[in-house]
Structures are given as structure tokens and as C-alpha cells.
Amino acid sequence: MSNTNIAMVGAAGRMGKRITYLISEDPATSLTAAVEGTDSPFLGQDIGELAGCGKLNVDIIDDILKISGSDVAIDFTGAAVTLSNLDKYRQAGVPLVIGSTGFDKNETAAIENLAKTIPVVFAPNMSLGVNLTFKILEMVAGAIGDDFDIEIIEAHHRMKKDAPSGTAMKMAEIIANKLKRNIDRDAVFCRRGLIGERSDKEIGIQTIRGGDIVGEHTAMFCGAGERIEITHKASSRDTFAKGAVTAAKWLKGREAGLYSMFDVLGL
Ligand SMILES: NC(=O)C1=CN([C@@H]2O[C@H](COP(=O)(O)OP(=O)(O)OC[C@H]3O[C@@H](n4cnc5c(N)ncnc54)[C@H](OP(=O)(O)O)[C@@H]3O)[C@@H](O)[C@H]2O)C=CC1
Ligand SMILES: O=C(O)C1=N[C@H](C(=O)O)C[C@H](O)C1
């Protein structure tokens, strides 16, 4: 298998460092650029030393156009930063893996538009387990129809900036599509006070933030006399990081288009 040269955008972040580490351990990948924002205190430092895998001779830079010598770029920065860089990604013309979350409908459309020009893997969760969970949810929602009330609960670390998580929103979207519901109309994000009886169609999406929780998602299907709970718990960020590196290797040399982790994992 030929080597995949990868540029990491958001390299000094929680995910960026773990992805860097896994790239350094994989004989089929090399890190070729490490990008951070202009105000980053890490500019000029060797990313390998920061990520704990020893010197990689790749200094952290703030010029994103320098990704253009790489086979693939991976972006784990957050929605606002990813969006602000879409024109530069188009200009660089490098296949792109986007792990950032927190995009609204219009922002998602902007990424879909970028994928007309370059190949893009765009997925709110790159772990194998979560993507299998998505498949299970689709199957369960299709089988139970409208007879069960649906609630989604997600929990993450105190540093996470967006809510609900991209994964929880994707779970809701999968279930809503299967049941012909509409997230804009049917999602309920918070309840308080004299709210009255629950409606049949609503999909509750609740957020918990605290400590160092890596990422936990539960979809509850609550019926009369029984309840199904489908839970995924991540205990290490490496599960997402491994998926991102797999996606980068898979994306190298593909045609322009929007791809998901289902494409990457063959699910
Ligand atoms: N798809 C998936 O499987 C997963 C997705 N995520 C998502 O990935 C994103 C990042 O998560 P996480 O690593 O925890 O967050 P972090 O805040 O730890 O990392 C983001 C990094 O991007 C940096 N950054 C800020 N501005 C720029 C810029 N202009 N150019 C390049 N880098 C910049 C930040 O620097 P600074 O701190 O100085 O602002 C920071 O180092 C989130 O949206 C999260 O939800 C997370 C885990 C899994
Ligand atoms: O910010 C995180 O940490 C995570 N974000 C992703 C999301 O918003 O779904 C995926 C994972 O749960 C970790």
C-alpha cells in the first residue's frame, strides 16, 4: 500500500494530538503539515513533541494553504473555524476529512458544495461503534414505527463547545428520516415548567456536560410496558482518531464528492 501524506488542521487540539500520534505509529501514513490558528501559543513547536510521540520534524504553522503538498487534510477544529477555511480548502484542492461538529443546515450545505470540487469525508463521529449504532437505530426505528416515544441523551466533557453533539443530531436525523419526521419541527431540546403531555411525534434531545467524559450517547425508545435503550460509550478518543486516519487513507485519490463513514467502513 502506498504511503498517505496527511496534513492535520487543529493539530494541537485534543483530537489533533491523538490523530498525530496514530499517524506517527502507522507505517502507511506520514504527517506532512500541522496547522493551528494565528493566535496559537504552539506555533513553531514540533507537533510530535507536543503530541507525545517524539520529534516528527513538522513545526506547527498557521498558513493553511501549506496543506497543498499533502495527499489528504484532516480538520478537527470546530464548525466556525472549518467554515472560515472552506475557500482555502477549495483553493488547496486537497481531499479533506472533516471531523468538526456543530454545523447548522446552511453550513452543512456549504460543505456539500465544497464536495462538488474536492473529495470530502464529513462525519460527526468516526468510531466504528457509533457508525454501527447508527445502523442499529435505523433498523429499530423502522421496526417500531410511531408506537414508542424517542429520547436521545448525550454526555461529554466540560470543554466541549457545541451542543447537542453532532452524533446526537445525526442519531435524531436517522430516526426522523426513517419515521418521516422533521427535526426542525419535532426535536425538543429542553423541558422545564408546566409543559403538558408529551406529543407522539417529538424527539427529545438532551445534553449533559461534565468532567472528562469522552463521549456517551443513548437513544431510548419508550413504549407501553417496555423500553429499548441503545447506548454507545467511548472510553478513549483514539476510537475517533483511528477512524479519522482510516478515512484519510481511504480518501486518497478519490473523485470529488461527499462521503460518510458508512462509505469508508463499507457499512
Ligand atoms: N467526528 C468525530 O469523530 C469527532 C469530532 N469531534 C469534534 O472535533 C472538533 C474538535 O474537537 P477537540 O479536538 O476536542 O477540540 P479542541 O478545542 O481541543 O481542538 C481544536 C483545535 O483547533 C485549533 N484552532 C483554532 N482556530 C484554528 C485555526 N484557525 N486553524 C487551525 N486550528 C485552529 C484550536 O486552537 P485554540 O485552542 O487555540 O483555539 C485547537 O487546538 C469539535 O467540533 C468536536 O466536536 C471531536 C471528537 C470526535
Ligand atoms: O467534542 C467531542 O469530544 C466529541 N464530539 C463529537 C460529537 O459532537 O458528536 C463526537 C464525539 O462524541 C466526541
What ions, cofactors and ligands are bound? NADPH dihydro-nicotinamide-adenine-dinucleotide phosphate, the ligand O=C(O)C1=N[C@H](C(=O)O)C[C@H](O)C1
From the spread of the alpha carbons, the general shape counts as: elongated
Which parts are unreliable, with pLDDT below 50 for 5 consecutive residues or more? none
Relative helix content: 25-40%
Largest sheet: 7 strands, parallel
Strand order of the largest sheet: 3-2-1-4-5-6-12
* Number of domains as seen in the coordinates: 2
Stated plainly, the CATH topology of the largest domain is called Rossmann fold
First-last Cα distance: 22 Å
The CATH H-level superfamily of the largest domain is: NAD(P)-binding Rossmann-like Domain
Pathway: Amino-acid biosynthesis; L-lysine biosynthesis via DAP pathway; (S)-tetrahydrodipicolinate from L-aspartate: step 4/4
Catalytic activity: (S)-2,3,4,5-tetrahydrodipicolinate + NADP(+) + H2O = (2S,4S)-4-hydroxy-2,3,4,5-tetrahydrodipicolinate + NADPH + H(+); (S)-2,3,4,5-tetrahydrodipicolinate + NAD(+) + H2O = (2S,4S)-4-hydroxy-2,3,4,5-tetrahydrodipicolinate + NADH + H(+)
Domain Dihydrodipicolinate reductase N-terminal: 5-126
Domain Dihydrodipicolinate reductase C-terminal: 129-265
Care to describe what's here?
The protein has 267 residues and is α/β, with parallel strands linked by helices. The protein has 2 domains: 4-122 and 237-265, NAD(P)-binding Rossmann-like Domain (Rossmann fold), CATH 3.40.50; 128-234, Dihydrodipicolinate Reductase, domain 2 (2-Layer Sandwich). The protein is built from 10 helices and 12 strands. It has helices at residues 14-25, 47-51, 79-84, 86-92, 105-114, 128-144, 166-178, 183-186, 238-251, 261-265, and strands spanning 4-9, 29-35, 60-61, 72-75, 96-98, 119-122, 149-156, 187-188, 203-209, 215-222, 227-234, 257-259. Strands 3-2-1-4-5-6-12 form a 7-stranded parallel sheet, sandwiched between helices. It has a 5-stranded mixed sheet with strand order 8-9-7-10-11. α1 links the parallel β1 (4-9) and β2 (29-35). α1 (14-25) crosses α9 and α6 (128-144) packs parallel to α7 (166-178). The chain is elongated. 40% of the residues are buried. The model has no long low-confidence stretch (mean pLDDT 97). The structure holds NADPH dihydro-nicotinamide-adenine-dinucleotide phosphate and ligand LZUJQKHR. Ligand LZUJQKHR binds at residues 101, 124-125, 156, 160, 165-167, 215. NADPH dihydro-nicotinamide-adenine-dinucleotide phosphate binds at residues 9-10, 12-16, 35-37, 40, 76-78, 81, 99-102, 123-126, 162, 166, 240.
